[in-house]
Amino acid sequence: MLIEEDNRSFEFLMAILNGVQWREDERKNLGGWAEGCFVDERPDFDEGKHEEERSWRDDQRVQLRHAALAIRCSLHGLEPLKVKTSALRSMLAWFWMRQEWVCLYATGISAEGVSLERTDLRRAELSGADLSGANFSEANLSEAYLFGADLSGAYLFGAHLRGAYLIGANLIGAHLRGADLIGAHLSGAHLIGADLIGAHLSGANLSGALYNALTRWPESFDPSFRGAIDVDISGRSARD
User: Fold this and answer.
1) Which of 13, 148, 201, 209 would be a feasible disulfide site paired with 228, CB 3.0-4.6 Å?
2) Which domains does the chain have, with CATH numbers?
3) Residue 235's Cα: distance from chain center in Å?
4) Beta-carbon-side half-sphere exposure of residue 108 (alpha carbons within 13 Å)
5) pLDDT along the chain (240 residues), means of 10
């Protein structure tokens, strides 16, 4: 696959596609192709198999859709890709059926309100994504990259966010009850009005994270001791 751990092929490919040798109109055309490829959920089966022998596990297009999504999200100068729940879930479900882990690479996507509860998104690259109001309840987002992502109002009940990179993320009004945030990187995150009751915050970095009187913390937890800033006392704006 194009997107794999310890494989720099994708990095080299994008350096070429975003380099001076590719014109802006060429990148736009490629982006259009990649977007169309990703959103097309029609399966592609081996023509040598009879229809009754085919199953969704045999769809030959899913890995292409996965690579196309990564390419589209990584091309410079394009508008954020708007993504719907069905397109993401159908792709992720194929890897789940085959019991294979896949790294979702979707920086900067616009996926407001998507429903991805209980999905395996370990080490996903979602930095800068608009995930406001999305449902990630009980999803596995361990070590996911969510730098500057908009997770305002997102549902993360019981989500696994151990070691996740939420630096500068917008978690205003997010629902994080019972979430595993052990070792998570939350420096500079906006936690105004977030619900963290029952969340596990051992070893989490909260330096410079912003909260207020509406933020709900685990019992006996002192956020100021961990470096978080109470905007009601400091006068800081939630947008600072």
Assistant:
1) 209
2) 1-106 (no CATH), 112-240 (2.160.20.80)
3) 31
4) 13
5) 67 88 92 95 70 65 92 95 94 89 94 96 97 98 98 98 98 98 98 98 97 96 96 64
